[in-house]
Amino acid sequence: MQNFEFQNPTKLLFGKGQISSLRKEIPAYGKRILLVYGGGSIKKIGLYDKVINELKEIGAFVIELGGVEPNPRLTTVQRGINLIRENQLDFILAVGGGSVIDGAKAIAAGVPYDGDVWDIVTSKVSAPSNSVPIGTVITIAGTGSEMNGNSVITNWETNTKAFFNSNHVLPRFSILDPELTISVPRDQTVYGSVDIMSHVFEQYFHGSSNAPLQERIGEAILRTVIETAPKLVNDLNNYEYREIMLLNGTLALNGLTAMGVSPDWSTHLIEHAVSAVHDIPHGGGIAIIAPHWMEHVAAVRPEKVAQLGVRVFDLDPAGKTDAQLAEEAIQSLKKFWESIGAPTKLSDYGIDDKEIELMTERSMLADQIGSYVSLSKEDVRKILRNSL
Ligand code: NZQ
Ligand code: ZN
């Protein structure tokens, strides 16, 4: 294991009816609030009214920033920063999915920073320690943004999707009521399930050694998704399945399985480049790219892919080489994702080879990416071509 520091102070308020905790949690941070939400799903499910009611209860002054896009945009973040500055607000309440929460985090960090918030998003400068405090109400299982310090933002003018990570934007509290996720449509439910699995993969395929506990925790999350997601996609209103998936999403990316290891993250960098150019749903892009990334790394280092096959997909290792097991593991993963209705190729989203060079370019945040297997530009181009 590598040396590591770990701090995750986000308070989780999990379960039915936890929305009423807002009146108890918010006053510690102030009553002048920026309420951030997405394209309207929170109004359809009656959550907006409940939140407003809670805010009234504590006599809050509220300014709204609605319409945060899936794959949230820099221009929206800049609007949020201006709203906080103009109205001297002291707390951000993000109500929605990963996009809404990520947007809120970039706003939080951008407010006390004199320069362009894009400097923070691209990690040129660190998020300030006096970032505006955030609370969240998560409405879709997947990103884990409700309990991590990540924010992923798209600069649509330059087709760049960048991310930063800072403890200064970790939510102070997050409300996780599985009932609020019941309205998530089937396709987004599938994307969330894929995203959770991929977050485990990114940390499971690490460049470090001696991390058996972290890997076993990851395998437990993967097995739980594999057991639950097929039942959930055929029974979207099932509260028990929703609660399992919600907790899975949070634990898959709250730092637990990244302790002491250097995660890979190549699949995410490549997917972020695809959605920066074509604006597709994150989990959909991951479902397409991840198996091709895995094929590439299996050719170089099959052992961990083989381990995944045996421990997660219950392959029988008797008489098989790591390369054979890795190949079967990838087939099992593809079969599983197809069975729940995930997309399999970029052409499912109407993407052809025209922008391959741009997507390759945008994936390469450094000359080499990845830590389990290091990828060159040529490797990324090949993975993208295989994904068409
Ligand atoms: O915008 P609204 O109307 O709210 O609709 C959303 C959106 O259309 C809808 N939705 C959310 N909750 C719903 C619902 N519809 C019905 N009922 C509900 N309860 O779902 C759609 C997708 O929402 P979005 O927030 O975009 O999804 P997700 O949570 O998957 O977030 C995706 C973003 O997170 C980034 C991705 O790159 C992408 O930009 N990521 C963030 C990470 C992090 N912060 O740690 C890690 C991830 O790997 C990922 O990169
Ligand atoms: Zn993801």
Write the layout of secondary structure elements.
Layout: E1 11-14, H1 22-25, E2 32-37, H2 41-44, H3 47-57, E3 61-65, H4 74-87, E4 91-96, H5 98-110, H6 118-121, E5 134-138, E6 150-155, E7 160-165, E8 173-176, H7 186-204, H8 212-233, H9 239-252, H10 266-278, H11 282-300, H12 303-312, H13 322-339, H14 356-363, H15 377-387
Helix pairs in contact: 4-5, 7-8, 7-9, 7-11, 8-9, 10-11, 10-14, 11-13, 11-15, 12-13, 14-15
The structure holds 5,6-dihydroxy-NADP and zinc ion.
Domain Alcohol dehydrogenase iron-type/glycerol dehydrogenase GldA: 9-178
Domain Fe-containing alcohol dehydrogenase-like C-terminal: 189-387
Keywords: Oxidoreductase
Overview of the molecule:
Pfam families: ADH_Fe_C, Fe-ADH. Residues 189-387 form the Fe-containing alcohol dehydrogenase-like C-terminal domain. Residues 9-178 form the Alcohol dehydrogenase iron-type/glycerol dehydrogenase GldA domain. Keywords: Oxidoreductase. This is Iron-containing alcohol dehydrogenase. This protein has 388 residues and is α/β, with parallel strands linked by helices. It contains 15 helices and 8 strands. The strands form 2 sheets. Strands 1-8-5-4-2-3 form a 6-stranded parallel β-sheet, with helices on both faces. Helix 7 (186-204) runs parallel beside helix 9. It is globular and about 70 Å long. Residues 143, 195, 198-199, 268, 282, 286 line the site of zinc ion (ZN).
